[in-house]
Write a structure and sequence with these properties.
The chain has helices spanning 6-22, 26-37, 42-49, 53-70. By secondary structure, the chain is mainly α. It is elongated and about 50 Å long.
Length: 71
């Protein structure tokens, strides 16, 4: 009998991801939140933060790489 609870497992996975994101450096954490919580595209993030697009792209790439390594 399969007693797993997919809703519970999803909640645990989301909590783990939130914990990993909270451990990122602030500049990377802001980018991840703007990109995946607020669903802004990199160009929009660059405008909001008044940063060059390439800087946003580079930091976002580094943040995602760090998260992937932590998983």
């Amino acid at each position: 009998k399969d007693t797993r609870n997919p809703g519970f497992e999803q909640a645990v996975a989301e909590l783990r991801l939130m914990h990993l994101v909270s451990g990122l450096p602030e500049k990377q954490r802001k980018l991840v939140v703007l990109r995946y919580v607020h669903e802004l595209k990199p160009r929009g993030i660059a405008e909001v933060l008044d940063e060059p697009l390439r800087t946003v792209q580079s930091r976002l790439h580094s943040a995602l790489k760090a998260l992937k390594k932590s998983l």
